[in-house]
User: Fold these one by one.
Assistant:
Number 1:
Amino acid sequence: MHDVDPLSMFRLDGQVAIVTGASSGLGDRFARVLASVGAKVVLAARRRERLEDLSESLPGSLAVGVDLSIAEDRERLVRETLEHFGRVDVLVNNAGVGHVVAIEDETLDEFRGAMELNVTAIWHLSKLCAESMVAAGSGSIVNIASMLGHVASTPIRQAQYCASKGAVINLTREMAFQWGRKGVRVNTLSPGWFASEMTAGMETDESSQRFVKTNAAIPRMGNADELDGALLLLASRAGGYMTGHSLLVDGGWTAR
Ligand code: NAP
């Protein structure tokens, strides 16, 4: 018999977790991972049919169709979560967008649109959920940024993406201090390249693969399951002494 049981600290039995952008890519995976360790998951995105399909495979989950660039929809998401479950323990702010365009050709609306979803929505949803987390004296917020919040992206030119992801990383640090004494932890998970709708085509494109091989210490894109552990570490009691951190899972891309 062992007197330590570290894996049990990664479980989220009975906890309620909101995952934004759960209709595809990383968010779909995050929702399944949280459900696999016992969480009741709230699935949020615009494509409601996809959320409903996913919800059918995750007992006890709730699908909420929302456009998170709209403030009223953000309020509705948290309101429906609290009405349905009476609590929220984990918030995974995953929904995000990026556009590849040179600054000279980027419009003000494109830049503002990305900032609204990638930064303002995270600030707003965190604020709305923190109200209930602070009252409960515990909670974990995981903001999905990117390694491109730490370093420049060019030759893939996406100023709005880099600016917004950098903002999320420092917003996370400030939230960690404002809520740290109230039991709420806030961390950032910053992935490198993973297959999703956002990176569609990269896996089969030769020059993209050469780009990844040249720049990452582990010369490939990440596998779908290689964010699972990092997500659970930040979301659960296993990361109970972590806050304000940006956890890079990027094959070493930013290591030099
Ligand atoms: P994805 O497949 O394009 O997923 C983006 C998700 O965001 C979708 O579920 C989308 O759902 C949702 N979304 C977009 N606009 C929305 C809106 N206005 N309201 C509500 N939901 C919205 O891309 P992904 O790669 O999984 O991206 C997930 C997160 O990981 C993003 O924050 C991205 O920046 C970050 N990330 C990805 C990578 C990567 O290599 N894949 C690397 C670093 C960081 P609907 O269209 O149904 O609304």
Number 2:
Amino acid sequence: MQQEYTARAERIMQRINELAAISEDADGVTRTFGTPAFVEGRDLVQGWLEAAGIHHRIDGIGNLRARLESPNPDAKTFVLASHIDTVVNAGKFDGPLGVLMGLDLLENLLAQKAELPFHIELIAFSDEEGVRFHTTYLGSKVVTGAFDPALLGRCDAAGISLDQALVAMGGDASQLSLDAIPAAEWLGYFEMHIEQGPVLWERNVPVALVTAIAGQQRVELTFRGMAGHAGTVPMNMRQDALCAAAEFVLTAEQFAQVHGRGLVATVGKLAIGHAASNVIPGEVTCSLDLRSPDEQQLAQAYDYLRGHAEAVAGHRNVDLDWNLVQKTAPVTCDAGLNTLLTQAIAASGYETIALVSGAGHDAVPVSFVAPATMMFIRCYKGISHNPLENVELADLAAAVAVADQFIALLRTQNPTR
Ligand code: HGY
Ligand code: MN
Ligand code: MN
């Protein structure tokens, strides 16, 4: 059996490497929603589905969706999924690993000529990271019926709207409501994903089950002061937008450090308008990414930092725009599916580790309509959103074995009926 799992892991790894060679950047892996590189990468995965003879389609938001039907037309649908869009200068595994492990599971079920008590749908979500339009889960929100059509007018840095980007890649905004799986038809959801944290690496255990996923709030801030001559404006007469932003950034860091217990705050983007070394910055835009598994702690941190940003703008005599662009509550994963996953992990001979995810995943919007859970796979030092992201073949083979067990148990026990 081990040989079989190693061979399957090798093929998954080979596909991950082939997909990683497709990027909108000459160096590093970048495939953001709707770009030609994104479409080329999706075409590659589509080719593997065609070669396997698996029925598939591309939906209105650009998700790639493959399906194995149960002989029972009234059966519910169990979804295996993750995302094929990436952050900028990404690793190879964040997203594609779950999609290509899911493809392997479908190919294996076909090879076994397995009769399914439920339909299985594999989905490669088109936008989990939210890099291009700054709002995440576009693909999974369409599939769960939670997509907000008002987002179609949101523009990217080049001024292209989401609706225009959809049309450019052959999508169709008028179909989006038809692309949802009705809540009554969901049997459950299982996402396989790298841990993106250090626990499994440190404990040297290949997989973990996920009990909860942290809530997150993403904000865009703009500080507007007064551009001026760096050589002539006295220090006590400046309205320096960058110094205001800098004061805010450091307070966000200190607040999260002091209030720990799972709260994290990150400013990942900062842009100075009309930047020049001899000009006092007049306008600065920055991001704020706040996360916590505790909804109350997240709300308190949000309110405190918003108040602090307003206070900084006040004493520095600059204006502030504070724009909440993304808010998702913390979610818990399904106990019934996690019982099965625990059995699958034990049956494969591994210790069961249960983790809370600090990273967001497509399982978040799904968990509002269906029983959802995730399996984490051990990754190098927990590094992610970084080209150093890596998964060892032995850990991938172990994860394939556990995933096989999980699907086998699901076919017999069906915990969420
Ligand atoms: O940001 C996240 O949590 C995920 O990578 N989208
Ligand atoms: Mn991811
Ligand atoms: Mn990610």
